[in-house]
Amino acid sequence: MRKNPVKIHKTVPLQKPPLLVSWYTPDAGKLGVKVTDFLIEKLNGQLIGEIDPLGFFSFGGVRFKEDLVQVQESQFWGCGEKNLLIFKSDEPLFEHYQFLTTILNFVKDRFQTQELYTLSGAVSLTPHTRPRRIWAVFNHLEMKLRFQGYGLEHMTWEGPPAISSYLLWVARSKGVLGMSLWPEIPFYLGNRQDPQAIGQTLSFLDRKFDLRLDLTDWDIETALLNQKIAWLRKENPEIERGLSLLEKGISLDESDQLKLTKEIDELFRERG
Predict the structure, then answer these.
(1) To pair with 169 at 20 to 30 A between CA atoms, which of 95, 149, 175, 267?
(2) Residue 255 burial (CB < 10 Å; 0-12/13-18/19+)?
(3) pLDDT at 65 over 70
(4) CB 12 within 8 A of CB 21
(5) What is the C-alpha separation between 122 and 185, in angstroms, rounded?
């Protein structure tokens, strides 16, 4: 491993801050990054440093935003007033263990961080008219016991491990307590922003870390989205049928899920 994989930009006074981690991909509705971007803006976050992408990412594929090239980013941000450390990044393509070890070594050695939280949206068959559940995965029983009474639900998963789960495993080996938060997002909103899921996630973090956030804008965005979908239901019988079944607790098969998602996406594009 390289001696100095993290380039330092600025020093921010932090005392054993918890670490919040979000990933650009994969993440339903970009929930994690939406949450951390909001926190960085509202808590006056400052860029502390970033991981050198060489050896971790392929430069053959880049993102584009407003016709501008965006290279892969792996940045640490510090919110000094609330003693919060944030890391947001693309998922590495190579040397996953070294990349995750770099994150943990940096926050432990420089800030004596003792706990971390990862944020990622999880696609669900829930309708948008219901409150979003937040599933949780812990890397230690002590961490799990701390959050009894927070309304979190235990997550079960069979399939390939997510990058967040891998990070929890590496964190445990280094004595860092951790949990992954997976707020559910209705499958037909997975390609767009789900303000209710974002708002509930921020509300949880606000309660945990006493951030004193004003979440009024997310409440307004949620109301506007619900109103827009209500209009779509009136205009399109297929959307009304699919959503009504979900609200009754009746699951849709894969073809009906795809159809409902397509119908909603098309009408959103038409209506703007």
Answers:
(1) 149
(2) exposed
(3) no
(4) no
(5) 6
